[in-house]
Design a protein that fits this description.
Layout: E1 2-4, E2 7-9, H1 15-18, H2 27-36, H3 50-61, H4 88-98, H5 114-130, H6 133-140, H7 154-160
Antiparallel strand pairs: 1-2
């Protein structure tokens, strides 16, 4: 069993499924993480190398400080390579222009474990502070998203009671 940032990842589980053990990482985010760190879909935790585990731990520790991936564009079907007499400096310049990172990376704003829980807690506190309907439902320990309360609100009452006076 591998421990990454205090979370135990089972050896026999697929890496992309084991990543969902982190609070704040679902299936889609786990799939993106595996693609970002070049971990195969069918790779199990026990098959990861020490370097891959280290990369995973460093990425999850601070995803906003990781440098963005350089994207190499694919050639179009009508691509004509430059002549062989083209100087290498010009070719390198073209490659660096084409491979600049584009757009915002979705994993950059990743918040996991304590940070993710803190964000959710702050959002609920904000809803309660402004006096919205959702905030009032949270404060009373009732379902927030329009569920029926006459017969089946037991789970919501248990879950929403946690931060009632906090």
């Amino acid at each position: 069993m591998v421990h990454v940032l205090g979370v135990a990842l089972p050896d026999l589980q697929l890496a992309r499924l084991a990543l969902t053990n982190f609070y704040g990482i679902g299936h889609k985010t786990a799939q993106r993480l595996c693609a970002r760190l070049q971990i195969h879909d069918r790779c199990k935790i026990r098959d990861l190398t020490a370097q891959q585990i280290t990369e995973l731990a460093s990425f999850l520790a601070s995803p906003s400080t990781v440098p963005p991936l350089r994207r190499m564009p694919l050639a179009s079907p009508t691509f004509q390579p430059p002549p062989a007499s083209t100087p290498i400096e010009i070719l390198r310049k073209r490659v660096t222009e084409l491979s600049k990172p584009t757009g915002a990376e979705p994993l950059r704003n990743l918040k996991i474990e304590a940070e993710g829980r803190r964000v959710v807690r702050e959002n609920i506190a904000h809803q309660r502070m402004i006096g919205s309907y959702v905030g009032k439902r949270h404060a009373m320990g009732l379902p927030v998203r329009g569920q029926n309360t006459q017969s089946n609100a037991k789970t919501a009452k248990k879950l929403n009671r946690v931060n009632r006076f906090g």
